[in-house]
């Protein structure tokens, strides 16, 4: 447990250093003149206006999809289950939940038990929370997608 926490905070610290000055291609190059497109961050989408890329974000609880049938923000219960957290609970801060950060409904946030009780925290910019297959912490969206198997069909 302790090891997992140390790794977790290590990743958090790394995240702050790494997120400075990086931007993904999705937000820089016009990919379409008349359609929205998504990026690694499942909450975000982009469109082109006068040759410039405009970034926007789905409302809280909605996620961006662009496939043969849909292009837009969908509520989490209509998303691929591997891409969303449904029905997460505020941890009671006993047992395992006391020692490890826990997933929250917002995939880029997590609960941490502190002396104040369960606290909802956000991952650093450009990262989202993973707790599966031995991975625990905030990971870059591209890693988050592959670890969670949340990739386009
Ligand atoms: C498009 O994405 C939605 C949400 O993930 C899914 O329900 C639908 O089946 C997808 N359509 C295609 C053609 O993949």
TrEMBL record:
Gene Ontology CC annotations of this record: extracellular region
Domain annotation Chitin-binding type-2: ranges: 27-85, 90-152
The keyword Signal is annotated on this UniProt entry: yes
UniProt signal peptide: 1-17
Entries under InterPro entries matching the protein: Chitin-bd_dom (IPR002557)
MF term (GO), any: chitin binding
Keywords, comma-separated and alphabetical: Signal
Name of the protein described by the UniProt record: Uncharacterized protein, isoform A
Native source species: Drosophila melanogaster (Fruit fly)
């Amino acid at each position: 447990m302790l090891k997992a926490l140390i790794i977790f905070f290590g990743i958090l610290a790394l995240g702050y250093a790494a997120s400075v000055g990086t931007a993904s291609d999705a937000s820089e190059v016009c990919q379409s003149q008349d359609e929205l497109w998504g990026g690694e961050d499942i909450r975000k989408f982009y469109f082109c206006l006068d040759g410039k890329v405009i970034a926007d974000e789905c409302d809280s609880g909605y996620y961006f999809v662009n496939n043969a049938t849909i292009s837009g923000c969908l509520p989490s219960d209509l998303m691929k289950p591997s891409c969303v957290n449904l029905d997460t609970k505020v941890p009671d801060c006993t047992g395992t939940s006391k020692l490890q950060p826990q997933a929250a409904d917002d995939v880029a946030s997590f609960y941490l038990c502190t002396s104040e009780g369960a606290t909802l925290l956000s991952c650093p910019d450009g990262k989202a929370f993973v707790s599966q297959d031995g991975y625990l912490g905030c990971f870059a969206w591209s890693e988050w997608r592959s670890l969670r198997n949340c990739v386009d069909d």
